[in-house]
Amino acid sequence: MTRSYTATMDDSSSTRRPIRGRGVASNPAGRFESRHYQGEDDGWPGEAEEAAQVRVTTHVTTEIPRSAISRNDSPDVPFDQAINPYRGCEHGCAYCYARPSHAYLNLSPGLDFETRLTAKTGLAEVLRLELARPGYRVAPINLGSNTDPYQPIEKQWRLSREILQLLVECRHPCTIVSKNAMLERDMDLLAQLAAFDGVRVFISVNSLDNRLASRLEPRASAPHRRIQAIRRLAEAGIPVGVLVSPIIPALNDRDMEAIIGQAAEAGADCAGYTTIRLPHELKSLFREWLAQHYPQRAAHIISLIQQMHAGRDYDSDFRHRMHGQGQFAQLIRRRFDVAVRRHGLADRVNTSLNGSAFVPPRKSSPQGELF
Q1: Which residues of the chain, if any, have pLDDT below 70?
Q2: Quick one: pLDDT at residue 365?
Q3: Confidence at residue 185, expressed as pLDDT on a 0 to 100 scale
Q4: What is the structure's pLDDT at 47?
Q5: CA atoms of 109 and 97, how far apart (whole Å)
Q6: Which of 51, 134, 172, 345 lies 20 to 30 angstroms, CA to CA, from 352?
Q7: Is 121 left (phi over 0), alpha (psi -120 to 50) or beta?
Q8: CA distances to 114, 209, 210, 289, 350 from 226, in Å
């Protein structure tokens, strides 16, 4: 496998300016890097300005995965099986908790995460083999646990659609989490899964401010399009909920009640939320983003985040990492509870689906079907 590399490892001041259409503006080394790179200005006039204006392009490489399903036993995650068709995510969300996972690929959680992507070609066939194993235990499979299955490159690669086609074929239940209205493309498949109670879709909406969303989630669908997607899914009889995620204190928390209200009016039947998480390299990346876009509020926002995590940027304790703790976290919880009761939504993410309809898929054969 070959990789094209256009985003530099330079973490100098010339890369710290916001880049149009990108969530972060630097490419710091991951925590496992043994080599570190630093840009230097050699004094030639105009070179720094030219470097700052370089357009960062997206490059996609492919890999043939050895396995399709990843499993977890985290008590705060409502599913134990997941599939991620892509590594990295072109949405470029500045707050994305998955950014540090790029360090395992010897890539940066910064620009690399949103520009150096991997498409897992042949994933559906690998999944077919796993579902056909005699000892396979049926449980809902989540698409979107780490990176968004409907990020922009899905339009070309269509890996998520291939997965859904297989799940429809063998009547296997699944859940989907996305912040891209592109999933409307697959409503034909989602309707077939919904017919036997085999799917639930969750649309993530954390702000109704287009200006904020364009900075925070530069390549995700606009907030109003996500609400529209909720409406279209609900009208098609596909169960859909809204995730107000993540809530960032003093930045987007003011929209929580309005998001829940609009989602309920559009047809959502449940709601959930999480507060922002800043593991590993994400701590410094999000601070850099705040300094670029909201410098006057940056210190206050970080202070509130730390108040929700016992004085730290992040607390990995399963009891607290999703919703935080302390007075501000309790306030968010109370506001959320009041909003879902007011609009008649379930206050939890329901992932209970029908697994009894499952029919193991047949393994692919070069000889085709004889009977």
Answers
A1: 1-15, 34-54, 363-371
A2: 62
A3: 98
A4: 53
A5: 10
A6: 134
A7: beta
A8: 21, 13, 12, 24, 20
Q: Which residues pair with 240 in a beta bridge?
A: 201
Q: Could you give the CA distance from residue 89 to residue 323 in angstroms, rounded to a whole number?
A: 24
CA distance 259 to 100: 28
Give pLDDT, residue 145.
87
pLDDT of residue 139: 94
- Do residues 184 and 158 make contact, with C-beta atoms less than 8 angstroms apart? no
| Residue 141 host element (H or E) | strand 141-143
Please say whether the beta carbons of 362 and 132 come within 8 A. Answer: yes
Q: Which of 252, 250, 269 is nearest to 260 (CA)?
A: 269
CB 258 within 8 A of CB 206: no
> What is the predicted pLDDT for the residue at 220?
97
Cβ atoms of residues 325 and 308 within 8 Å: yes
pTM for this model (two decimals): 0.89
CATH code of the domain occupying 24-33+58-342? 3.80.30.30
